[in-house]
UniProtKB/TrEMBL annotation:
It comes from the Bacteria. This is TrkH family potassium uptake protein. The chain crosses the membrane at residues 16-34, 46-65, 77-101, 132-153, 194-219, 231-250, 296-329, 349-370. InterPro entries: Cat_transpt, TrkH. NCBIfam families: 2a38. Its main location: membrane.
Length: 447
């Protein structure tokens, strides 16, 4: 593998991940600037190409150019490949080539894979990568077939197959790119149960994480789930259900969103909008027409995001669960956070707090700067920034009107959101050394 050949270039796993993603984005941006990549025959501005490549590689879905209309088939395929590589991770794809060529996976490569998949140990990491590739191929392939059959009733068969493949890759990787044009996403299929169910299945399966998918597949044999899988499944289900109820209540009488739909349509649309905040980026109703309460609530859901080891972003469902558990433990006067009869280590709690505060500082800081460079209200800016950090891709219309400074800031936010603020901090920060002493304990008043 590439890293095995350059052992002299001593970079930490987080640094290699940052540089790897940056290199993929740069290559994608160069390809998208080519006249063959768009339908106008003219080179795309580099800042727009860089923004699009970042959005695709970071599986976000925010766009400054209409993917279905502006980009040619070549450009769309480049975007789809960037989504696939970005969603699964460039180290996963490099491992695929090594496995195909029957080359040995070095210890350093395993360390990078451990960091990329957010694992606590290297044990079984190559086996997990095999499962990642297998699950992705099966899920995307089955969904592509179903979507192609459904869309063959609306368009030529060849186009339906192409649309099925593109959207299966995009939605499983929680990217949110679509080819229907005019920035309408899936609004034409708000009442279509087949499209809604297939897309929601892709979003949820991609957002659960490959560890959870592996546990679910092997459940019939093992008859048990890991603590991680139990937490992810329960919190994901709770967030989706709670989100559906809140959106349904807030938008029930809004004529621009749910008001014009029947009861079945209202429930389906509410459910879809709740699911898509798992960092997917597709929508079936006009997000800009939603009430401010609904938009702010979606900001919270997008900030939480998907689960560790998945194709999604955000602070992750497990981080949010630990925060909730800490609050409950404090209120009950307990010293430990207990989930499913397991006590969490203090290091897990510190990591959850660190990730949350770094994410808050990033989102609020970028939002404050954008409020001075962009001509829009603060909620719209906060919505767009959180969408970028959570690699969600949902937009209320600001992205296509961003200034150059805005595009750069949102691109950096998407990059930080995909890699994770903690990984980025490890990559940019100094190497940690061993503490040789501890300071005396002190007490301060809180509350």
């Amino acid at each position: 593998m590439l890293t095995a050949k350059f052992k002299w270039f001593r970079l930490s796993p987080p640094q290699i991940l940052v540089m790897g993603f940056a290199a993929i984005i740069l290559i994608g941006a160069i390809l998208l600037t080519l006249p063959i990549s768009n339908t106008t025959g003219k080179p795309l501005r580099f800042i727009d190409a860089l923004f699009t490549a970042t959005s695709a590689t970071c599986v976000t879905g925010l766009v400054v150019q209409d993917t279905g209309i502006y980009f040619s088939t070549f450009g769309q395929i480049v975007i789809m490949l960037l989504i696939q590589v970005g969603g699964l991770g460039f180290m996963t794809m490099a491992t695929l080539f090594s496995l195909v060529l029957k080359r040995k996976i070095s210890l350093r490569d395993r360390l990078i894979l451990q960091e990329a998949m957010n694992q606590n140990t290297m044990e079984g990491i190559v086996r997990l990568i095999r499962k990642v590739l297998l699950f992705s191929l099966i899920i995307e392939g089955c969904a592509a077939v179903v979507l192609a059959i459904r869309w063959s009733f609306d368009m030529p068969v060849g186009q339906a197959i192409y649309f099925g493949i593109f959207h299966a890759v995009s939605m499983f990787n929680n990217a949110g790119f679509d080819l229907f044009g005019h920035f309408n996403s899936l609004t034409s299929y708000v009442n279509d149960p087949i499209v809604n169910i297939v897309v929601m299945f892709l979003i949820v399966s991609g957002g659960l994480g490959f560890i959870v998918l592996s546990d679910l597949v092997e459940y019939r044999k093992n008859r048990k789930l890991s603590l991680h899988s139990k937490v992810v499944l329960s919190m994901t289900g709770a967030l989706i259900l709670f989100g559906t109820i809140v959106i349904f209540i807030f938008e029930y009488s809004n004529p621009a969103t749910l008001g014009s739909l029947d009861w079945g349509g209202k429930i389906l649309a509410s459910f879809f909008q709740s699911v898509t905040t798992r960092t997917a980026g597709a929508n079936t109703i006009d997000l800009a027409s939603m009430r401010q309460a609904s938009q702010f609530f979606m900001v919270i859901l997008m900030f939480i995001g998907a689960s560790p080891g998945s194709t999604g972003g955000g602070i992750k469902t497990t981080t949010f669960t630990i925060l909730v558990g800490a609050v409950v433990a404090m209120i009950r006067g307990r010293d430990d956070i207990v989930l499913f009869r397991y006590r969490l280590a203090q290091e897990r709690i510190f990591k959850a707090l660190t990730i949350t505060f770094l994410a808050l500082f990033l989102v609020l800081g970028v939002s404050m700067i954008l409020s001075t460079t962009e001509d829009s209200d603060f909620l719209t800016i906060l919505y767009e920034t959180t969408s970028a950090f959570g690699t969600v891709g949902l937009s209320v219309g600001l992205t296509s009107h961003l200034t150059v400074v805005g595009k750069i800031l949102i691109s950096l936010t998407m990059f930080a959101g995909r890699l994770g603020p903690l990984t980025l901090a490890y990559a940019l920060g100094p190497k940690k050394g061993k503490e040789l002493y501890r300071h005396p304990e002190g007490k301060i008043t809180i509350g």
